[in-house]
Amino acid sequence: MTVAPPAENAGSRTVKPAGWLDWITTTDHKRIGILTVATSLVLLLLMGILALLMRSQLTQPDEHFVDAQTYNQLFTIHGSGMIYLVMTPFALGLGVYLVPLQIGAPTIAIPRTTLLGYWLYVSGAVIILTGFATPTGAHADGWFSYPPMADSEHSPGMGSDLWIVGVFLTTIGMIIMGWAVLWTALRKRAKGMTMLRMPVFSWSMVVTCLMVIGSFPSLLAALSLLTAGRADPSVFTSNVWNIGYQHLFWFYGHPVVYVMFFPYLAAVIEVLAVFSGRAPFGYKGTVLSLLAFAALSMSVWGHHMFATGQAANDYYSLTSITLLIPAGVEYFGMLGTVLGGRLRFRTPMLFALAFIPQFLIGGLTGIMVGTPVVDYHVTDSYFIVAHLHYVLFAGSAFGLFAAVYFWFPKVTGVLLSERLGKIHFWLMVLGANLTFLPMFGLGYAGMPRRVYTYQTFDGFGLLNLLATCGAAALAAAMTVFVVNVFWTLRKRALHPERPPAGDNPWDAHTLEWATTSPPPRMNFTAEHPLPPITGHAPLLDLRQRAAAAAAEGAATGSEPGPGGRS
After folding, report:
1. Is 146 in contact with 160 (CB distance < 8 Å)?
2. What does the alpha-carbon distance between residue 290 and residue 307 come to, in Å, rounded to a whole number?
3. How confident is the model at residue 496 (pLDDT cuts 50, 70, 90)?
4. pLDDT (tens digit, 9 = 90+) per residue, 464-493?
5. Is the pLDDT of residue 455 over 90?
6. Which neighbouring-strand residues pair with 448?
7. Element housing 416 (H / E)
8. Confidence at residue 41, expressed as pLDDT on a 0 to 100 scale
9. Residues 6+ apart with CB under 8 A from 51
10. DSSP letter string over 190-227?
11. Angle, to 10 degrees, between the axis of helix 418-444 and the axis of helix 461-494?
12. Distance of alpha carbon 242 from alpha carbon 230, whole angstroms
């Protein structure tokens, strides 16, 4: 159905309807960000389905729901998808959407190239998933695909080749997006927006993009080496190249954990500050800790290789444990923001609060596996699976949903249902902990990762059953989320006469909330100009000055002047 476009007005809430061609060729950073985030959320649902199939296979001993080869494909594409196609692109998509708004820029740097980055990401995702349609199935050697097991002799078939091409394209797309966001933050800030006035989220994207630019090319080098090994398997008869691949891969593989952490941590900090009614506590300390964390993250990759005997264990253990210092500063900042604040327990705040203890479990168990004597015992066990999932799901995914619920009214102009949001939250808390907490016990008891079945006498049945029940709760949680999104958007489409949520329904602090919701093409207009930028929370500064002026006026019996308006 074609709708006649209204007259264009840069300051109006009425936005020209966009056809599909406008979306796929857009140079508006907000649309590119929406496309990236929406694509990653769809892929999150798909990766969740693969996880449910795996949990169904492991529910009880000696199950035959899927065979061994199919199971190998499931865990490989699930792990690859969550890291390459979901958590990393969502984080960078948030940056593409929010950073220009938060720093007062009218648009993103290199917008056409940014759009190219999105389409490389989509192309890579399609190519990876196409592996399931090949005669030998999808790639089946894990998201890290160590040689020689991943060479053409041990893993024949086109599925592995497609996986390499898909991951390569996706990685190039992420590097492009990282360059665009970093360039924007460094060179396109509004007048008065100094580096130390940027919001915490924008700072998190600066350090995230520095890691993307610094470490992601190492993955491209590792994939090139793997490609050479698939063309000539004799490449990997020398252990030098097998260990060399691991060094190249993990130089990417550890920083990417923080690429999938910093933006979600910063989103949590923004949410905690807004729903505590105060600016983020320890702003400068948090910024410095992010920079230190990013630098240290580039020096710890070898702790993934303790059990190989080919890494300097003492050095990598020391650098891994040193990460506790910047992490502690960030946790202290989050707690300092909440303590003493006027808390409002809306859905974004609930997800942000749950992030704190759950990610702490992932972080502390990371220090455990960063200690060689512990790592020797739990390497390649379900303890590692539990640790990674507490970092990326019980942790970062809660930050992801805090961001979705918080910025949804900015993107769409409407609020998601609070009732459904709270149901989604409690199901996720139950499901995440019931799924992943038993895996620590399974790993410590000796259950290897990547096994598709086990025997009754192994004693793994009860904990696996609990984990599968938790996975069912997570599936229910995601179903509620999908219903919430579609129900909210459909209700808005059916009743356009209803008033929108407002430009700033949360009384948030940063510049993206100073313009309309959703924002106009060039972000800020004559009707909604940039406010004075006096700090990293300019809208909060305006409200505080207005309150002070009102209090002074009440004391003197006079009305506040124009400067007292927020």
Report:
1. no
2. 29
3. confident
4. 999 999 999 999 999 999 999 999 999 888
5. yes
6. 381
7. none
8. 98
9. 78, 471
10. PTT--GGGS-HHHHHHHHHHHHHHHHHHHHHHHHHHHH
11. 160
12. 13
pTM comes to 0.93
List the structure tokens of 298. Answer: 């580039």
- Compute the distance between CA of residue 137 and CA of residue 98 in angstroms, rounded to an integer: 39
DSSP state of 561: -
Rounded Cα–Cα distance for residues 321 and 317 (Å): 6
Supply 550's token pair: 């009102």
Cα separation of the two ends of the chain: 41
- How many other C-beta atoms lie within 10 A of the C-beta of residue 133? 11
Query: Do you find a cis peptide bond into 438, omega within 30 degrees of 0?
Result: no
Confidence band, pLDDT 50/70/90 cuts, at residue 198: very high
- The whole-number pLDDT of residue 2 equals 37
Q: Which two tokens stand for residue 395?
A: 């942790």
Q: What 3-state DSSP class applies to 286?
A: helix
C-alpha 170: how far from chain center: 15
Residue 565 has pLDDT above 60, yes or no: no
Query: For the chain, what percent of residues have pLDDT higher than 70?
Result: 95
Q: Which helix (H) or strand (E) holds 296?
A: helix 283-297
- Write out pLDDT tens, residues 107-164: 999 999 999 999 999 999 999 999 999 999 999 999 999 999 999 999 999 999 999 9
What stretch of H or E contains 401?
Answer: helix 398-412
Give bridge partners of residue 381 from the DSSP assignment.
Answer: 448
Q: Which residues contact 45 (CB under 8 A, 6 or more apart)?
A: 478, 482
What is the rounded distance in angstroms from the CA atom of residue 474 to the CA atom of residue 52? 9
Q: How many CA atoms lie within 13 A of 17 on its CB side?
A: 8
Alpha-carbon distance of 410 to 120, in angstroms, equals 27
3-state secondary structure of 167: helix
Angstrom distance (rounded) from CA 102 to CA 193: 9
Mean pLDDT of 343-358: 97
User: Nearest to residue 91, comparing CAs of 204, 252, 238?
Assistant: 204
Q: What does the pLDDT read at residue 1? A: 35
Q: DSSP string spanning 512-545?
A: GGGS-SS--TTS--SSSPPPP--SS-HHHHHHHH
Ramachandran sector of residue 340 (left: φ over 0; alpha: ψ -120 to 50; beta: rest): left
Rg of the Cα trace of the chain? 24
